[in-house]
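Reopening this one. Same input as before:
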Amino acid sequence: MTENTKKWIDPDELKTSLVSPGLAALLSAIVPGLGQAFTRQWKRGLLVFASTLTIIGLLIWRFRLAAPRDSGVWNIVAKAFRLQPVLIVVSVLVGLLYLAIIYDAYKLAQIAGNPLKRRPFLVFTMLLLVFFSIGWQIGRIDPVAMFPIPSNAVRALGGVLWPWEKAIVFPEDIQKGVTLIESPCRDETFTQPEALETGPYLLTDPICGDTTTFEGNVGTTFFVRGFGFDPEEEVVIWWTDPAGNEFRQRQGGENVKVIPDENGDFEIDIIMPYRLLPPSFDEDQNVWQLEGRQVAHVGEWEFSSEIKLAVEKMVETIFIGMMATFFGIILSLPLSFMAAKNLMSANPLTLVLYYVVRSLMNIIRSIEPLIWAILFLIIVGLGPFAGILALTLHSAAALGKLYSEAIESIDPGPIEAVVATGANWFQVVAFAVVPQIIPPFVSFTIYRWDINIRMSTIIGMVGGGGIGFVLVQWIRLLDYKAAGIAVWFIAITVAVLDYVSSEIRERFV
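Same output, byte for byte:
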């Protein structure tokens, strides 16, 4: 064996096994990992033992979850296999893993003391397969469910991928023909408005009636005549209930529409619809309004309210990320120097401060900005300020960690030279540390700014301001084209900021 070969060989690999190959296999059959430990592969044996315990615990959990009301091991296992067949595959793989552990212990005992022999990796392959299969079962992964794609998913994806029909609108001038209907019939003197000399109007027979009820009783059928509409242009029937709520007339599951003749007149039978009025409603106000609405004029195109709102909220999102990054830098700079061990290990007091600051930053970083945003919403209420506070706090901890690690990796030579001149701690930082950390600080700051821009869209979903707030509202309303406009603006903004940040990085890093 050459001198160079000895340098990279682990001393434990030169030691012989404490037991024979057969006994090592038997020990691992009794307690998985025990045979590996007796071949002096302690870490390997501990890993196998801990992994086996974890797998057993996960399997017990999944079997009990599949059959929570059953008793008896065989009953639980049988029901779990019947309800979730993937557990059969998992169980087979666990059995193969058990055999692989026994084989691994046998082979390790055989090659113990010979560092040139390759250690078997079958047991680790089986461990990965078992954990993957358990993850597949826990995640309820079903590739078949993705095909064929449901029609509603196609509609949603189509709206998100190409939403620009919603970006431009053409203002419409609506003309209405209106009449009044009493429901229920109470006032014998009630009359409908007189016919107009110009413009569209409606007449009904009768002039009062009853609504359709929840129990299924069909309401009064009205014979409706329309006059004075534009010929051969679609007219849509609308109602306005006594509470002032507008809704379209639906019959047979579709909105009621009618096409006037060449004179602008039409006739149609309409059943008075079902309508639930609020309990506080005054029953004496029993007059309903029936309308025929027709588009009279289409104006020039203009940007829709959705795209205007998306632009406004995207600007808000950018400034949320920018302000959070700015405040995060201010807070993280002093924290980073206090969290750098090479600067704080001079005496016990500063070393204690180092551990306190480091622990505090780790705690803050471990909590996602989304959780911080929810907490700040309770304090300051809905709006972008809560999002800025959440991102600022998380940015201060994250940048403080990155900055401190950059400080710890600097060249100690300049520090020793400045200290040799009798400089104090602040002078050492100013003249020996700061010149070395500017490039990584700029790089980390740009990276965090990019993260904050993207995170501000998520924080907006819980009410922290920005485009995320309107995005989640549009999704809940199933307005996928409006949601698609928001998604496109997010993607375009992130791409532009990525280009800007790369340019800044090239100049300063």
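So the earlier flakiness isn't reproducible anymore. For the record, The CA atoms of residues 97 and 127 lie 7 Å apart.
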